[in-house]
Amino acid sequence: MRQYLDLCKHILENGTVKEDRTGTGTISVFGYQMRFDLQQGFPLLTTKKTAFRLIASELLWFLKGDTNVKTLIEDRNPIWDEWGFQRYVESDEYDGPDMSDFGRRSQKDEQFAVIYREQMDIYKKRILSDEQFAEKYGDLGPIYGRQWRSWASPEGSVDQIQNLIDGLKRNPDSRRHIVSAWNPAEVEDMALPPCHALFQFYVADGKLSCQLYQRSADVFLGVPFNIASYALLVHLIAKECGYDVGEFIHTIGDGHIYSNHVEQVKEQLSREPRPLPTLRIEDGKSIFDMTYEDIKVEGYDPHPKIKAPIAV
């Protein structure tokens, strides 16, 4: 994963200090590309432990067209908790302690952090126990899963993933194997506008490759997940269509390191990468029916994890 470490180093050496939506502040570059040969191993970051279970369960959640955090909470996956929680605490129905700017406040004030964790726990338990509450405050709007599997059109919904699979089988040389999550008509209704906005598949010599365009990339926390998620997607689609895997090409618009992640990035850069693991996917299931138990990473031996706050 030298490609990822080179990106981190490039941002620290050449980035511009910028403000951002979260108020945290970033060091940012615009326009960067990484290439990963998936024949050389599965690109799961080794310079810090990266939770593959969370990556896989989130991707399967997207592929099923789901947009409600209830499914992820049931799977013990907290990736989207903050965005569902934010929708609830900003609603008229919420009458608990002040949760404004909870992301930054919980990092700076331990007393508030305890209250925040208590309120988050209450929220998650209610999501699991109250169906009406989950429907109202667990749904994140028309985010990735909705756009991938049920893009709204005047003629009815469009299943972009099924169309992608059908097209790759029928006409592999097409230049139209594209899936877009960026729907301008619905961006304002999403809990978070899509960061990984558009991807394109390409077949050559019996190998399937994918290029992702990511408009906004949280390089320390998000990008390792994005790399592994789309590499897994290539493997899944290749298996579904009968191809070998080729490359994953990751094209980034605004690639940034948050100001409160700089020391963590430097620690990671001091570590030597280890050999990449391999991926094993059980046979006999459609990608739409797979569970996390059907997907295994073997030979993963990373350095210890490095904690950092998420910017909401």
UniProtKB/TrEMBL annotation:
Keyword Magnesium: no
HAMAP family xref list: Thymidy_synth_bact
Pathway membership: Pyrimidine metabolism; dTTP biosynthesis
Enzyme class: transferase
Keyword Methyltransferase: yes
Domain of life, per lineage: Bacteria
Thymidylate synthase/dCMP hydroxymethylase domain segment(s): 2-312
Assembly and interaction partners: Homodimer.
Purpose of the protein: Catalyzes the reductive methylation of 2'-deoxyuridine-5'-monophosphate (dUMP) to 2'-deoxythymidine-5'-monophosphate (dTMP) while utilizing 5,10-methylenetetrahydrofolate (mTHF) as the methyl donor and reductant in the reaction, yielding dihydrofolate (DHF) as a by-product. This enzymatic reaction provides an intracellular de novo source of dTMP, an essential precursor for DNA biosynthesis.
Bilayer-crossing regions: none
Catalysed reactions listed for this entry: dUMP + (6R)-5,10-methylene-5,6,7,8-tetrahydrofolate = 7,8-dihydrofolate + dTMP
Pfam families: Thymidylat_synt
Positions contributing to (6R)-5,10-methylene-5,6,7,8-tetrahydrofolate binding: D218, A311
Record-listed dUMP binding positions: R21, R175, R176, R215, S216, A217, D218, N226, H256, I257, Y258
Record-given protein name: Thymidylate synthase
GO biological process, one term: methylation
EC number: 2.1.1.45
Compartment(s) of residence: Cytoplasm
MF terms in GO: thymidylate synthase activity
